[in-house]
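Revision sheet: structure tokens.
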Amino acid sequence: MARVIPLLPAQPRTPKPDWLKVRAPGSPSYLRLKGLMRELNLHTVCEEARCPNIGECWAHGTATFMILGDVCTRSCSYCAVAHGRPAAIDTAEPERVANAIQTLGLKYVVITSVDRDDVKDGGAAIFAETITRTRERLPQCRIEVLIPDFKGEEAPLRTVLDAGPDVLNHNTETVPRLYRMARSGGRYARTLELLKRSREYAPRIPTKTGLMVGLGEERDEVIATLRDLRDVHCQILTLGQYLRPTEKHAPMVRYYHPDEFQELKTIALDMGFVHVESGPLVRSSYHAHETADAYDKAAQG
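Predicted:
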């Protein structure tokens, strides 16, 4: 007779604290921007990554454009973006993105992408072309790029930097101990090297990175990671709460209280970061325009 295995009661989900609750999107600006994205066959990381701030950002007419398609060649355990075999590179995409930016009259835009390990330059040429096309249509628009690691190759990084973005962003995401679990295709040392190379090759372009907490890291690991980032002269930092997209993704270990984010911000500023955004709902592109403005004022002061 087969052994009967008793069923264990399902563990109740940890309720989301009040400081993480946001309104469902639906403003006229949100609907207009969503319609434009579909009309031009464009993607945003706001939608693909299920960002909790999509309603607020889109209501203000700002978005983070995701180029190089909507399928990533990597499968990070925290990320909601689809992964698999992507379609061929769309060489007309930069023009469509520039058109959308001009139509919206944006003063500041963030351009990011999926990882494209299937192409030689990781998509760097498309990043550069998107910057160039946007500058042609809207010269006054400031451009931040949130780039992949290009598998550690220096030439693609230089291709992007030569196009002249206003901010070079590459996310660290988590502490080195958790890289194998969270970023199976990434390397912590590679991330630091990218930020270091950017500062050395284009010192006038500020570097930015983001960390999420709640994956099981210890406080001293976070602080050690911040020191590593300062050692490569990273200047802008974002710190936010990891929120599990679905039950298939990496589990969230705990919620950080807003007071803890404030403490980490103070520590980071004391280390020498020029500007820090730290809070439960902070994401790499959240308030990017305001963050860049604050950086400029702090750097000039």
